[in-house]
Each structure stands twice: as structure tokens, then as C-alpha cells.
Design goal:
alpha+beta; 2 domains; four-stranded parallel beta sheet; 332 residues; six-stranded antiparallel beta sheet; globular; binds adenosine-5'-diphosphate; single chain; Glutathione S-transferase Yfyf (Class Pi), Chain A, domain 2; binds magnesium ion
């Protein structure tokens, strides 16, 4: 699906803003603080359901009582999201809903400058990054993750009370074991899927024979639900001492390997950029083949971070997609 135009009202610093988009590439130029990322954020909210960087009270213009985003598509469809400081409302297919309906969700590849530091980030940043992609690929992953996080929060709260007992823990342990096993399984499979293409894609960009792969780091490979449950139960004393759950998929990590070594520290700056670029291309390819739709590509201020060769790769690779680029300086 192609977005034809976007209209914003009271969305961050945009009191009233309208932009017609090209079916192929649109360039949004503006100085820092002009509101470029906000435009991508608005598109993201109406395609993915929520912002990639904030919650609605931060987004609504400081002086306003509501915000409104309207996206028109080339097939005549119009979608709207509003927030009035209390309620969020989506209007899709002429129906109102509190959340973006599943069938209104559309895949997006978002590329931000911070992604270029992904390799050196913390485990939680790595998980957040891949969780977002995997959630886009699979609704069940997304809901398992939400349920896991909810149960984890409850279990951790209970651990902070004076006397957590095995029986009071049981229902949370059960949920953690159930969803944790599912998440673990999906993460293994998606990592394999990424690795099927990562190296050849990297090669097409860097044209050298370095080996690149993504490694899913977990304490739980191929663990059964009952074993998972048992380990949670065995950890009760330790966990109540710590005041949090010390075992589970919330401690997993993802690491890139470069010639079998940790890429963070062994790949150069240029090689790191090529790895991230390759990852983005692989993401798009997997999304396209799994969901049968061409993702919209949102490139937020990344051009200035890339040299000419890598810029060309980016443009060429996504030439059949709708691409929206923001930049401080004109790019040619
Ligand atoms: N809720 C808000 N109300 C009004 N202005 C906001 C709000 N949130 C952010 N801003 C301002 O909006 C401007 C645009 O931010 P952003 O889209 O990140 O700009 P850019 O990507 O062009 O650098 C910033 O100056 C920021 O301070
Ligand atoms: Mg910005």
C-alpha cells in the first residue's frame, strides 16, 4: 500500500501540517528540531499502532487538547488516529477502535541513527531491537511477549514482599514458562532466518569475504516448558534474595559475530555500518516474504552518517519501495 498524503494537527511542534508523498521516494528536509522525526513518528503510529519513541502525552502538542494524524492511501482509504489527553482513537475502515486493528497494520522498516550503534549496545537494547522486528513478523510473538512481561512484573512484585511462597508464585511461574518457551523458540527460528541471508547480503555491500552472523545468546536453548518451570521454582530462594527474577528470556541477548569474533570491538566503523545496512535489507526481505507486503521504509537522518557507496546501496536496494527520507542537508 502506498501512502498518498499525511496531515497532522497538534502533533508535537506541528500545529497544522500537510505533506503529499511520492509513491517512490520523498525527501523531507529541515534543520534540527524542525519536526522531521515527528512526521515519521506519525506515520509509524498509524501503521504499527504506537510510537517508536514516546507515549501520547509526550507527543500531543504542549498547548493543545488533542492531536490528530490522518493518512490517505492511494487506493482512496483514509486512516485517522486521535488522542485527546485521555483516549486514543483509531478510525480505520470507517470504524472506531482503541487500538490499531490487526488488519490495518502495515510493515515498516525504520532506520534511525541510533541503529548504527546497535552492535555496541546493551542486551536490553538488542532485545528491544529484535523484539520489535519479530513482533512485526508474528502476532503471536508480540502477544507472548506482552503476556510474559506482565507475568514477570507480577512475579517480581511478589518477590519484593516478605514471604513469597512456592504456591503464591506458581501461577506466575506457569505463565513465564509457557510464554518464555514460546519466545525462546521464536527467537531461535528468527535468528536462523536472518542468518540465512545476512552473510550474502553483507557480501553484496562490502564485497569482501568476511563472515557475518547474528548469535542468539540464551541460557535456555531448546528447553522444555516443564524444565523452564522447574528452574524458576529452584531459583525461588535466590530470586527472593535478589528481589527479581534471575532466570528467563528477559535476560537473553543478541550479538553479531564478525569472522567468528564479537563484532563489537573487531569490526571497523565502516564494516559495522555495512553490517547494519545488511541487517536492514534482510529485515525487509524477510518481512516481504513472510507477510507478502512491501514494507514502507523510513530513513530518519541516516544519510549524513553514511558514505556515498553505502547511500547508493540503500537507495538501490529500496528502489521498489515507498521510501521516506529525512535529512538536515540536501542529498544528491
Ligand atoms: N509535545 C510537544 N509539543 C510541542 N513541541 C514538541 C513536543 N514534543 C517535541 N516537541 C518539539 O518538536 C520539535 C521537533 O522534534 P523532531 O521531530 O524530533 O525534530 P527533527 O527530527 O526535525 O530534529 C523539537 O524542537 C521538540 O522540542
Ligand atoms: Mg530527528
Amino acid at each position: 500500500m502506498i501512502i498518498k498524503s499525511i496531515t497532522l494537527t497538534n502533533f508535537r511542534n506541528h500545529k497544522k501540517y500537510h505533506l503529499d508523498l511520492n509513491p517512490d521516494t520523498t525527501l523531507i528536509l529541515g534543520s534540527n528540531g524542525w519536526g522531521k522525526t515527528s512526521i515519521l513518528e506519525a506515520i509509524y503510529i498509524l501503521t504499527r499502532g504506537k510510537s517508536f519513541r514516546a507515549t501520547d502525552p509526550d507527543i500531543i502538542n504542549r498547548d493543545a487538547m488533542f492531536y490528530r494524524i490522518e493518512l490517505s492511501y492511494n487506493n482512496g482509504e483514509v486512516r485517522i488516529a486521535t488522542f485527546d489527553r485521555e483516549n486514543k482513537t483509531f478510525i480505520c475502515y470507517d470504524k472506531k477502535s482503541r487500538r490499531l486493528p490487526k488488519k490495518a497494520k502495515y510493515p515498516v522498516i525504520l532506520f534511525q541513527p541510533s541503529d548504527l550503534n546497535l552492535l555496541s549496545g546493551s542486551p536490553s537494547r538488542h532485545r528491544d531491537y529484535f523484539d520489535r522486528i519479530f513482533s512485526e513478523l508474528n502476532e503471536d510473538y508480540s502477544s507472548s511477549l506482552l503476556k510474559y512481561e506482565k507475568a514477570l512484573k507480577q512475579r517480581n512484585e511478589l518477590l519484593k514482599t516478605d514471604l513469597p511462597t512456592e504456591s503464591s508464585m506458581f501461577s506466575w511461574n506457569l505463565l513465564l514458562a509457557k510464554y518464555g518457551t514460546a519466545i525462546n523458540h521464536y527467537r531461535q527460528n528468527f535468528t536462523t532466518l536472518i542468518n540465512q541471508d545476512l552473510n550474502t547480503t553483507y557480501y553484496s555491500i562490502a564485497e569482501n569475504s568476511d563472515l557475518v552472523s547474528l548469535q542468539y545468546k540464551t541460557e535456555l536453548s531448546d528447553i522444555s516448558e516443564s524444565k523452564y518451570l522447574k528452574l524458576l521454582e529452584q531459583n525461588l530462594t535466590k530470586d527472593s534474595y535478589l528481589g527479581h527474577t534471575s532466570f528467563g528470556v528477559h535476560r537473553d541477548d543478541f550479538e553479531f559475530l564478525f569472522n567468528q569474533k564479537k563484532a563489537d570491538g573487531s569490526a571497523s566503523r565502516g564494516e559495522t555500518r555495512s553490517i547494519i545496512l545488511a541487517l536492514k535489507f534482510v529485515e525487509a526481505k524477510i518481512i516481504e516474504s513472510k507477510l507478502g507486503e512491501k514494507p514502507i521504509i523510513l530513513l530518519d537522518d541516516v544519510f549524513s552518517e553514511l558514505d556515498n557507496t553505502r547511500r547508493k546501496f540503500l537507495v538501490n536496494n529500496f528502489k521498489n519501495h515507498q521510501v521516506i527520507i529525512t535529512s538536515v542537508e540536501d542529498i544528491k
